[in-house]
Every structure is written in C-alpha cells, then in structure tokens.
Design brief:
211 residues, Tetracycline Repressor, domain 2, single chain
Length: 211
C-alpha cells in the first residue's frame, strides 16, 4: 500500500463519538425506508393487508431488525398513516405556495379529483384509500389520521374568500368530504365512463365556473 494512503488512514480516528453518530445516522436512514415502504403499502393493500415481513423486505432490511425501530406493528402503522396523510396535505400546501390566492382552491380541487390521482392509489390521498378501515384501527392510527383530515379542512377553509370563519369551516368540511367521497367512488367502480362522470359531476358543483 502506498505510503501516502497509509498516512491518510492514520489520521482517521473512530472514537466512540464518531461511531455513535454513524450508527445513529444509519438507523435514521433505515427507519425512513421502513416508513416510506409502509406508507405505500397501507394505501396499496390496506392496514390489514400490510405485514411487517413484507414491509421490511420492501425496505431492503431483515425482518429481525423491525423491533429496533418500532415497539409494535401498530406503532409502525401510525407513523405510516401520518406520513401518507402528510403527503396529501403537502400537495395542497405546494399548490397554495405557487398560485395567486384566488386560484388556489380550484387548483387543489382539480388536482385532487384528477384522473391521475384516481390511478395513484399507492401514492395518493391516504384518507380516500383507508377511510373505510379507520374505525377498526388502534387509537394511535386513528389519532394521526384525524389530525391530517383536520389539516386538510383547515387548509381548504383558509382559501374560501369572502366567508366568515364559521361559514368557511363548514363549507371546507363539505368540500373535503365531497372530494374524498368522490375519489373513493371513482376508484371503486370498474366502469371508466362512470368514474369520469363522478369526478366531473363533483368538479361542476365545487367549481361552478369550470367548462
């Protein structure tokens, strides 16, 4: 081995501090991979169809390492539900950040009820994908899902111009319920024409000026 390589190797000191930081970072990366895999899986297969072994395999990790990251399957599902729900809210916030205020709400509704979102079950809104399963889930899972639903309602309410606070909140609840319900039905039917008709009917009601 060349002398300069040996010399550079002598300068590297792996003390307890550096080893601990490296180990912590590695664990954080693995944890993130598990949560991402679980967030996709619950939307694709539902809570009951999401197993620990499959999640760990999808994340490229061994099954035995699961309990180094989560105390239970329910804890993993809660974090996955939070991640999946947060992605829908993030999409809405992104739209709000790049458009003039008067264009935000129509754009959010159109994006949510787009053909692309109907097809994107694995990466789309977790509320629509998992809502029917929620009453049977552990309290922690329901808690994070409820928080994300409230965030969606609050965000929509902020962009209902010209309404009082109480009226805006009630209208926002209706809009979110209509959006989520329509997406569920549009995904459920096996008739593409009906799926499109359901989307278009809701868009017409929520955005009256749409052509």
């Amino acid at each position: 081995m060349p002398e300069e390589v040996l010399e550079s190797r002598r300068e590297i000191v792996y003390d307890d501090h550096h080893m601990k930081r490296a180990g912590t970072r590695s664990k954080e990366i693995s944890h993130e991979r598990i949560v991402e895999a679980a967030a996709r899986a619950i939307r694709r297969s539902g809570y009951s169809g999401t197993g620990v072994a499959d999640i760990m395999k999808d994340a490229g990790l061994t099954h035995g390492g699961f309990y180094a990251h989560f105390p239970s399957r329910e804890a993993m599902l809660a974090e996955a539900a939070d991640r999946a729900g947060g992605e829908a809210v993030a999409m809405m916030e992104h739209v709000a950040a790049i458009l003039p205020p008067e264009q935000v709400l129509p754009a959010i509704i159109q994006a949510y009820l787009s053909k692309g979102h109907v097809k994107a079950i694995e990466t789309g809104c977790a509320v629509a994908a998992l809502g029917s399963e929620m009453p049977r889930q552990a309290p922690g899972v329901r808690r994070v899902a409820t928080r994300r639903i409230k965030e969606m309602i609050k965000l929509v309410g902020r962009h209902l111009a010209g309404r009082g606070q109480a009226d805006a909140e009630e209208c926002a609840r209706f809009i979110v319920a209509a959006m989520v319900g329509t997406l569920v039905l549009a995904r459920a039917v096996d008739d593409p024409k009906l799926s499109n008709a359901l989307r278009e009917a809701t868009l017409k009601q929520l955005i009256p000026t749409q052509d």
